[in-house]
Write a structure and sequence with these properties.
four-stranded parallel beta sheet, four-stranded mixed beta sheet, alpha/beta, Spore Coat Polysaccharide Biosynthesis Protein SpsA, Chain A, single chain
């Protein structure tokens, strides 16, 4: 059963902002997250909601201790593991507040930014986009005429849970999300919600450039690393393709490719390590070949070669495979340049003399 610890939704005046933390078996990270911002939580009377997929009561004990220092902490231990998307949806829809800021348990909030964010909410945006890893340090309302273009160039960044604050309108959309949408937005529920609200729902969007969140250096590894191909090629591509009525074919292609290019999660060193660890193999390549071709910025035929390589060859010194993959990339670029040259020559020949 769910824990009864501060489970009830508070009554009374609606706070301007609540922070929510979807978590699973990371009690020490939850403790570090909340303690790092305790002064601001008290100063600005910000409630915190913890929605917990854990299979033990360690996080609950952490929260019990934290409540002694900040009473407005609400905790829900799910009766069963809701998995990422349903727990994320709960983190967005459960809190009693005008705005909700869901942040992954592996992140930390840069405390001085809290006051800046609270002041920005006076502009009454529907979505507030926060900086985590891009060089744009300005602050501005994203005008409707530029919103589509901005989403195309920044959607990869918004995969980070903690880079968006949700207002009342998007949270209502989240409450009405269908099973089909959960399926299309698998492992990216929050981004599916952002894309829907910023395109079809015409949400008012605000960008805050100074970095508001950062990774917790004490977090070891990532739950996504073991299934990187399945998530950041397969699920990511299917999410973007589900909005093919919103984005042009070229925009769709750029969006799908953008995450791998910007995060470099599919660089040759990473893929070699994935192959060594069994996280990239022929069965995985065969199952996700279409999505891999769209999402991975490397020649598909050389990815197939890597996936099919016998284990003995994969465990060659990494330099050997690294040089091979770099050579393949250079060959691919040479081929593209050759095709471009032929195209330009044909266009030149067609011009009147």
């Amino acid at each position: 059963m769910e824990s009864a610890l501060h489970l009830e939704t508070p009554s009374g005046p609606v706070p301007q902002l609540a922070i929510s933390i979807p978590t699973c078996n990371h009690p020490e990270l939850v403790d570090q997250f909340i303690r790092a911002i305790l002064p601001s939580l008290g100063r600005f009377q910000i409630p915190v909601y913890v929605t917990d997929n854990s299979d033990n009561d360690e996080t609950e004990r952490i929260v019990q201790n934290l409540i002694k220092e900040h009473s407005a902490i609400f905790y829900r231990r799910n009766a069963q593991n809701l998995r990422f998307d349903a727990n994320c949806a709960q983190a967005i829809t459960w809190p009693h507040a005008e705005y909700v800021w869901p942040v992954g348990d592996g992140m930390l909030i840069n405390e001085p930014m809290i006051e800046t964010i609270l002041n920005s909410l006076e502009k009454k945006p529907d979505l507030v986009f926060l900086n985590y890893r891009v060089p744009d340090l300005g602050q501005r309302v994203i005008e409707p005429s530029h919103q589509h273009e901005w989403i195309v160039s920044h959607a990869w960044h918004l995969t980070s849970l903690g880079a968006t604050i949700f207002g009342t309108k998007p949270r209502e959309v989240a409450r009405k999300a269908t099973t089909k949408e959960f399926g299309r937005w698998k492992n990216f529920f929050h981004l599916g919600l952002i894309l829907r609200c910023s395109t079809t729902e015409k949400a008012r969007c605000l960008w805050i450039g100074p970095h508001a969140v950062r990774g917790n250096p004490n977090k070891t590894g990532s739950g996504w690393v073991g299934i990187a191909i399945q998530v950041f090629a397969g699920d990511w591509a299917r999410l973007i393709l589900s909005f093919s009525d919103v984005f042009s074919p070229n925009e769709t292609q750029d969006l799908i490719r953008s995450h791998g290019v910007k995060t470099r999660i599919f660089g040759w060193r990473d893929l070699l390590q994935f192959r060594k660890d069994g996280r990239f193999s022929k069965p995985i390549f065969d199952a996700y070949q279409t999505e891999i071709k769209l999402a991975v910025p490397l020649p598909i035929r050389w990815l197939q070669l890597l996936a099919e390589a016998p284990d003995a060859r994969v465990h060659w010194p990494s330099m050997g495979w690294g040089l091979m993959l770099r050579l393949c990339w250079l060959l691919e670029k040479a081929q593209q340049l050759g095709q471009l040259f032929v195209k330009k020559s044909a266009q030149s020949d067609s011009l009147p003399k």
